Task: inverse folding
């Protein structure tokens, strides 16, 4: 199961990276179009779709690498059971919120599909297509938070300690 979950997080991260390359390609296409006097419809919208998809699909991988921003002032002051209790409370709240976020993201994509909702731009893209990346990213984030919660309950979670300072620039 661990290998499957790690592969899921890595696959989402690679897809997020591919979408970032997609942003680059679409923006370059738009710039070249202006220079060479041709127009590709929807380039701004597609850059936005790729950017949003990249952000959502990278969430779980970022969480699993302890790269999310955390306010640890209170957490670092606690030790033993109090610290573990606060971690479990925070992870439980995160699971609940990620679950709600995933539910409403999937619901939004489904409703866009059911109502044949399209973008208002001149590209008229069916909105459920770019919304799939948001729904997928939030589902994978929910799985990652449940994974972290289970690891914390079992006492196998990697602590986020003073190494966080190394991530600052």
Result:
């Amino acid at each position: 199961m661990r290998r499957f979950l790690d592969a899921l997080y890595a696959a989402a991260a690679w897809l997020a990276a591919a979408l970032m390359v997609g942003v680059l390609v679409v923006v370059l296409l738009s710039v070249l179009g202006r220079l060479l006097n041709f127009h590709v419809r929807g380039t701004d919208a597609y850059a936005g779709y790729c950017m949003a998809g990249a952000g959502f699909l990278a969430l779980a991988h970022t969480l699993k690498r302890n790269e999310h921003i955390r306010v640890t002032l209170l957490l670092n002051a606690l030790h033993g059971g109090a610290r573990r209790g606060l971690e479990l409370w925070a992870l439980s709240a995160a699971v609940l919120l990620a679950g709600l976020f995933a539910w409403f993201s999937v619901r939004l994509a489904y409703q866009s599909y059911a109502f044949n909702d399209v973008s208002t731009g001149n590209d008229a893209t069916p909105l459920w297509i770019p919304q799939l990346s948001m729904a997928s990213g939030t589902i994978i984030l929910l799985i990652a938070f449940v994974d972290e919660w289970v690891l914390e309950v079992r006492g196998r979670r990697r602590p986020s300690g003073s190494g966080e300072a190394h991530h600052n620039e």
